[in-house]
Amino acid sequence: MDKLIVRGGRALDGSVRISGAKNAVLPIMAAALLTDQPLTVRGVPALSDVRTLGAVLSELGVEVGPVEDGTLRLESAGEIGHEAGWDFVRKMRGSVCVLGPLLARLGQARVSLPGGCVFGVRPIDVHLKGFEALGARVRIDHGYIVAEAPSSGLRGSEVFLGTAFGSSVTGTMNVMMAATLARGTTVIQGAACEPEVIDLGRCLQAMGAQIDGLGSPRLEISGVERLGGAEHTVLPDRIEAGTYLVAGAITGGRVRVTGCRPGDLSSLVDRLKQAGFAIERGDDWLEVQPKHFGFRPSPTDCTTQPFPGLPTDLQAQWMALMCRATGVSLITERIYPDRYMHLPELVRMGARIRRQEALAVVEGTERLSGAHVTASDLRASAALVLAALVADGETQVHRVYHIDRGYERIEERLVALGADIERAEDD
Ligand code: EPZ
To answer: Which residue range or ranges hold the Enolpyruvate transferase domain (predicted)?
Structure first.
């Protein structure tokens, strides 16, 4: 197990090229199950989650090539199994995305119920509701989801997939994938509009799927007999891009994120401007302008929302920035009300934060101090690294395997931006 050792004190300066989006590449890999033709995916990030899903898919009988220069070739021409076991799914919830493709391709699927995670229960009721709307029988059996299509196959219908917390990203993805091979037309109301859902939809269209309404809360999918192979380049990771922009802001430095889609980050750019930062933009880059090391942002009030609102996946990073604001900030987590595992770790570094349910009240302080902190979920871990960049002294972030799930070589990229950070064996 590794740790990251960070010595704060330097304003970052430089540019970083953004990798392909983790939350698009995972469902796109699962989409390979929908066809017996080869699917070639470009812009694949070197992440442990990609390797884990690759292992799940090869267990199922998919030929999963090595990732060479960001290119991954998948082919499900042979015998495909229908069961994804507990061992894989517990490692990564994203593997629940194989459910829809397996059900559509084989007429059956047996996938372990994904565990919760550190930020609370993560139900999949709307995934199952969507499959039932398509005619599947779904039951829970000894910790597994068992889904079976009628002998005549799935059939299209209309279904509302909204939840009490807004739309469901992977719920929309799973049901959209299943609907591509269902007889007739499926209408998904309350669909997620995240860029990753659009990217998956575009890959499915390249494979021959008939999908209208991508990016809107209403998707219309006309089922086809079969899908073919395709080549698809994954969109850039807006959460990785946002994380590095905040890294520049928190250190008072200048960071340009290149190869990104500025339009996917409008909510973060809006917050950064409100906090007192100047942001430049180009066609495929964004740059936070330098202040000076020790600059303290203005306090802000923000609420996480489905796209295009402030992403829940940037909430922890935003909290780290607000820990040094010149006043009191409010953060309301509307997607995962318990997503505050980073909060006690930031407090260990001298942050002054109080939580009431989904609301966190952050009283900005002059300084943070380095400490031993423990990573928990992927984005909380990134937030601790950001805080460490601006803290006095040395911080050791333990259990960084959480970070490696979603950030490609984070310490190398931060070193290239001028940070004093290194990876070491955790004792
Ligand atoms: C996706 O998770 C992302 N993961 C998450 O990113 C991201 O935080 C989340 O979307 C929200 O944007 C992947 O794409 C692999 P949801 P997902 O279904 O699809 C509730 C990261 O850090 N809900 O959109 O699992 C749910 O509890 C990860 O990269 C139901 O009630 O999230 C939550 O409150 C973390 N019933 C809200 O909806 C359901 O059946 C949104 O969840 C499904 C979800």
So the answer is: 6-414
